[in-house]
Structure formats: C-alpha cells, structure tokens
C-alpha cells in the first residue's frame, strides 16, 4: 500500500491535504526502521508498546489494520475503508467541496 500513499502525497503536495499514519509495531526502533525503508514521508505516529491495543487505535475504535478514515476540512469523517483509487477519489471530492465553499 505504501507506493500508492507516496504518489498521493506527492500529487497533493501543494494542496491543503495531510496523510497521517498510525503504526502498530510494538518495537519503536523497528517501526522507525520500517518507515524509513518503506519511504514514509508523511507524519506517522507510533501506537505504543501495546501495538494494536495502543492508545490511538483504542480511542478511534480501530479493529483491523489498515483502517482508513478520510476526514474533510472540518474534521468530520466522511469516508472509511477507502484504498487506492477510491481514496484518491474521496480526497479529490473533499478538496473540490472545500474549494467550492470558499
């Protein structure tokens, strides 16, 4: 999945867009090495030593990995589970809505 996210981040680098990742590896050093190896260039947070049971995923009710939430410019979750081209379409739609509302 990482190549798609890299292309999305690159394509939208001049737009009001942010991709944020939450990593569930229990070993923080491994998490950092994997992020570097996979070319993660966006903000990515470590979920803590409890892995998938960490604070972030618990608060957001994450039950499976990956879980994807697409939020609009007001912070409202508008799409869940979108991946690949569907994620691009969702993000493009929300950017268009935001621009139309200016």
List keywords for this structure.
102 residues, alpha+beta, Glutaredoxin, two-stranded parallel sheet, two-stranded antiparallel sheet, 4 helices, 42% helix, globular
Order of helices and strands: HEHEHEEH
| Separation of the first and last Cα atoms | 33 Å
CATH architecture: 3-Layer(aba) Sandwich
What is the approximate shape? globular
Helix fraction by DSSP (H/I, runs of at least 4):
40-55%
Into which percentage range does the β-strand content fall?
Answer: 5-15%
Give me a quick take on this structure.
This protein has a single domain, classed as Glutaredoxin (3-Layer(aba) Sandwich), CATH 3.40.30.10. It is built from 4 helices and 4 strands.
What does this structure look like?
By secondary structure, the chain is an alpha+beta fold. The chain has a single domain, classed as 3-Layer(aba) Sandwich (Glutaredoxin). It contains four helices and four strands. The strands form two sheets. It has a two-stranded parallel sheet. It has a two-stranded antiparallel sheet with strand order 3-4. A hairpin with a 5-residue loop joins strand 3 and strand 4.
């Amino acid at each position: 999945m990482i190549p798609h996210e890299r292309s999305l981040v690159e394509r939208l680098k001049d737009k009001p867009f942010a991709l944020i990742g939450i990593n569930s590896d229990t070993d923080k050093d491994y998490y950092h090495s994997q992020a570097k190896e996979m070319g993660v260039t966006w903000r990515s947070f470590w979920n803590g030593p409890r892995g998938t049971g960490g604070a972030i995923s618990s608060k957001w009710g994450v039950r499976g990995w990956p879980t994807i939430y697409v939020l609009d410019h007001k912070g409202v979750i508008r799409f869940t589970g979108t991946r690949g081209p569907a994620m691009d379409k969702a993000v493009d739609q929300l950017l268009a809505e935001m621009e139309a509302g200016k």
